[in-house]
Amino acid sequence: MTAPLNPAETEEKVPPVGPYNMVVFDWDGTILDTTAAIVISIQYAAEKLGLPVPSTSVCRSVIGLGWRDAIRIVAPTCPPEEFQQFGAFYVERYKPEEPKVHLFEGIRALLEDLQKNGVTLAIATGKSRRGLNQVLEQTGIGPLFSETATADENPSKPDPAMLERIGLATGFTPEDTIMVGDTTHDLGMARAWGCRAIGVTYGAMTREMLAAEPSAAIVASVGELRKALGLD
Fold first, then answer.
1. Which string of DSSP letters, residue by residue, matches 210-228?
2. Is 26 a catalytic site residue?
3. Using CA atoms, how far apart are residues 92 and 39, in angstroms rounded to an integer?
4. In whole angstroms, what is the distance from residue 220 CA to residue 116 CA?
């Protein structure tokens, strides 16, 4: 009988994307495995409001967007005056799922290794400031990040405002920076700002979907992400 392959043995050989001084990470679906919890919570909110329940693929497609932008896509018939109630139902369903979400395997070590190498780390996320602060505290990795930008304080992705704000705060240019994310919203934001991007397929979107936006690499695991960033 052939022994099962070690996950590391099945990873593709990913060439490093080149020098950089800062890496900006998306959060949901890139650092924290929240995709399933987000999808069922969106579907629950739509059902509670008597709206057509969006498909899993549609729900996954809005992960990373600002909340109002996301609702307009997953529930196009939802009147704006019901957006707050939609959000309340979403939170109602998401809360029980919170204990089940977790950091992707190997991501903490990747972040720590980048920091040890002198790389500045930042976050650009569709989460609210309150939501991001909460999960940073829960996971204990908040101190690893020099800057964070959220969708309630900036225009939603793929607008480059979050990256512009992070760049101004850190002093790094697009040429110094790599954006890492699991959606075309992340890659499109990077394109708009002029920095390189790495797409990850272990989150919300497939390789075929991510290929709609330019990227320096598309990787299928945290192990491959390490290789793209030149850590292994």
1. HTTS--SEEESSHHHHHHH
2. yes
3. 13
4. 24
CB-side exposure of 96: number of CA atoms within 13 Å? 6
Q: Determine the average pLDDT of the residues in 199-205.
A: 96
DSSP 167: H
Is residue 186 annotated as part of the catalytic site, yes or no?
no
**Res. 221: pLDDT tops 70:** yes
| Cα separation, 191 vs 174, whole angstroms | 10
Q: What pLDDT, in 10s, does the model give residues 125-150?
A: 999 999 999 999 999 999 999 999 99
- Count H helices and E strands in the chain, helices first: 11, 6
Bridge partners for 174 per DSSP: none
Is the omega angle on the peptide bond into residue 76 within 30 degrees of 0, that is, cis? no
Is residue 79's pLDDT more than 50? yes
CA dihedral 152, 155, 159, 164 (to 10 degrees): -80
